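User: Batch of two.

Assistant: Item 1 of 2:
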Amino acid sequence: MKYVLVTGGVVSGLGKGVTASSIGVVLKACGLRITSIKIDPYLNTDAGTMSPFEHGEVFVLDDGGEVDLDLGNYERFLDIKLTRDNNITTGKIYQSVIDKERKGEYLGKTVQVVPHITNAIQEWIERVAMIPVDGKEGPADVCVIELGGTIGDIESMPFIEALGQFSYRVGPGNFCLVHVSLVPVLNVVGEQKTKPTQHSVRGLRGLGLTPNILACRSTKELEDNVKEKLSQFCHVPAANIVTLYDVSNIWCIPLLLRDQKAHEAILKVLNLDRVESIALEPKLDEWVARATIFDALQDTVRIAMVGKYTGLSDSYLSVLKALLHASVDCRRKLVVDWVASTDLEDSTAIEAPDAYKAAWDLLKGADGILVPGGFGDRGVQGKILAAKYAREKNVPYLGICLGMQIAVVEFARHVMNLTDANSTEFDPDTKTPCVIFMPEGSKTHMGATMRLGSRRTFFKVADCKSAKLYGNVTYVDERHRHRYEVNPDMVPEFENAGLQFVGKDDTGRRMEIIEIPNHRYFVGAQFHPEFKSRPSKPSPLFVGLVAAASGQLDRVLQDCCNGHVVPAKHILSNGSYPSIVHQNGHPKKLANGLSNGTYYANGNGVHA
């Protein structure tokens, strides 16, 4: 097993996750099998109880693991299925060591950070690296490890020490360290400054780790003299210093690494550069095509995202990525209008009339409406109003998890005239409980007590839109994360009133997908389809939303029924095959783009 460690210096948020994912893509394109591990130094056992404002979205895996959003990047980029053990936290490590101590496995010794914690970290890495994640038998060839946080953080110290020991243990030729750092440009002088990276590398070396490759984040490509200076002071060959400058879209990052021969440097460090079965030129045609398509898109589709955490786009990262995959598949340029659900409520009309008007203007100007998952009662009334507007005005609507539940509540209130209808999450004493607490849930323990992971949904209505979008299969496996569900005792009343429950679990008691048949596109899913969306395999329900919002749903449904769907990687909107994504030999730049592919919002929506 070979290991590639990705660390970060100077500041957080440099895009270590995207860099690690892109390294995996390039190595995979050389013919290697890749697995990934993310190390998060926080004390939480997992990300399940953390607020999206604290750490971005909680990504859910097939096995029910609630993990860091970077594992979502790994899965999307590498098209793999990771396990909960691929996310290491300080909490998990300490818990495992303390459990062993309680069982007497340390034979009365004093349990210390070194060697017990550091050994536990190394053993965890070695064990998890051997688990196949690509559907094939046997372990992967290379394990890409990302160390979260920034070099120098006190909580990272046990991991730094463990990884230093680990690099010595596996030996030269089996361990490559890629350090992601910042090379800022000061506006006053317009010069690329190397001192932050120098100090970061010096700190890393002082902790027992020496970088083999520097990946420098900057607004533009590093100048040759800057590379030479970094090489001299950081003791890294100039050929091993790559620039991750701002590009137009996230799919250009693997191309940046390829064009700067980063794969050759990594293969050389890992003694893989002379293995006959490994290609020295990565095959990235699909990535070139996708990046080209994205840059060529002109016709827009506007999707209103109605949620609580609109101030931080990472809170809905997988939803944004799924929308992006679907919009590229439908040949539309995605514009996401962030709508704070509280701004749609009547109380805001009195307290902040300008915010109220702006929110409703965005909602009414959208081609489609999406209400993502969430917890708690803040902003729920605004989400209900958004669902009501979509239903009454025949605007394409997709509700995910809570978004489906509030659509059911809205239907009960305004179609069935059950004015006191509600979810017991928001009103435990409601006389018309449309949404109820699941019997196996826990109201006292919050961590890992939900219905989590991959569960099977069976289609009960063969000619519904959802079944057609999935290719007329009889069932689908999607990932869940919820405590509440539609009250099965009320299902006959809903169906008599015109709301179809087209997807259910194997017992028929759990409602998974809803539709309104005579609506352009009104779909709700109890599961989270965004977690399994891939650039080359966009989520069908998201494709349905974007297709309906751009007037293409009938064609898409017909193509799905006939099995004639053409992947986005093959054609442009004019029917031609894309051949280039470069400008002057490099991926095309975007002045204000973010190379980590995140989104920022203003009054005009969302931009990549």
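Item 2 of 2:
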Amino acid sequence: MANNQLGVLNALDAAKTQWYHFTAIVIAGMGFFTDAYDLFGISLITKLLGRIYYTNENHPKPGTLPPNVAAAVNGTAFVGTLAGQLFFGWLGDKLGRKRVYGLTLMLMVVCSIASGLSFGKSPAGVMTTLCFFRFWLGFGIGGDYPLSATIMSEYANKKTRGAFIAAVFAMQGFGILTGGIIALIVSASFDHAYKAPPYSVNRKDSTAPEADYIWRIILMFGAVPALLTYYWRMKMPETARYTALVARNAKQAAADMSKVLQVELETEEEKVETASSSNSFGLFTKEFARRHGLHLLGTSVCWFLLDIAYYSNNLFQKDIFTAIGWLPKAETMNAIHEVYRVAASQSLIALCGTIPGYWFTVALIDYIGRFTIQLMGFFFMTVFMFALAIPYHHWLSNNAGFLIMYSLTFFFANFGPNATTFVVPAEIFPARLRSTCHGISAAAGKLGAIVGALGFLYAAQSTNPAETDQGYPPGIGVKNTLLVLGSINCLGIFFTLLVPESKGKSLEELTGENEEADGNDKQQASSTQTLPV
């Protein structure tokens, strides 16, 4: 146990699970619900956008987004998210977690609505406006990553901290599922109200004019859950760890946490001064590199590798389902019914693979540890990717088997590195750099998402030029793309060895922030250990 632990931090570490823990999970988690809805919801409507704005009635197949437009629509939100993670991560350490927490949420609300109101006299105008608003939507979403993770980490007790942070992140699963459900409801309603023939029967009438409302409604609904939690975000006090260790205001930290924990806490100004003066190195210092350089490399690279595979799979499920024949060919459906079929398939994967994986992590992370879950997740993602790719042609005649195996890749992504890469950076870095380092790690992940989104867009195209989507050059095919993704997951296994185990330790034990200046050597040795304890 650390020898100079502040009483207010001791109280937080030892607190039993209380109502305020669940309140914090919901408040922070609804941000991630919105994040997932907005980021992954675009995959539900890209086929519809292609039909509405890029159909050539002289062509035997309905329109698809041109390669540069598809790359922009899929990628701009990720570029914004990457920028937001770096900016708000830094700002959260400079100004405090709470002061910028509401700003990210309002940015998401405004830009979700604005995305649905995208306008223009031409298809290029509409897509440009959409990409503009999705960049700023991503910027707000990016801020939610480091701030939500850090706030939950600093509020939680050390016994169940991993489960609480993972529960915030697990709200992503419900966001993905809700996106599919909203798309199902909206498309089914419009399909019932506005009957249209398949494209192969009547090319002009297969896309009802009213279909333009569908994608707008789906995007704008993303503002609702974020708006509902804005008031409660503003009511949350600043975390005691920021107030005491960064702002150095022990009196305010004790007062805030006395209200939260409903106990009287002693003000300990002298301990705050000792902890702050003995542990004040910056991000770009040799001391940080010595203590945490390998940790930051490990968290960043693991998140980068994970997101290449995870976002490739998530954003292009519809293309994989079409390739294996689970989704009917586009020309056999009208535009609105195609949205319904895409939403149904993605909802099924979310329900069977994505959501269970998240909650397995929540249940087990504080028992078997972050390191074990991440290592196991990368291993099984590799196994199932190769199991899909190597006998790929067998799966073309066995759709049910393919879907089971494909769902398992999502299950072990979420009962694995997709959750732990979010949890660990919120635990292992000092309070004054915690939000910044989490933002850097998350930004590396979004760089991977950009690589995955753009790379898969081209790589998964058929090797036969006659079978590629309009405007795309031949790619390496779905089979070879899955082999590449499996190899990337395999790399994640090795970089996981750089990430320390944080199970069962207080944040200050992990970072040495509560150590006296003359007792730091022992703590530094333990805080820089890179293998699980």
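The radius of gyration is 24 Å.
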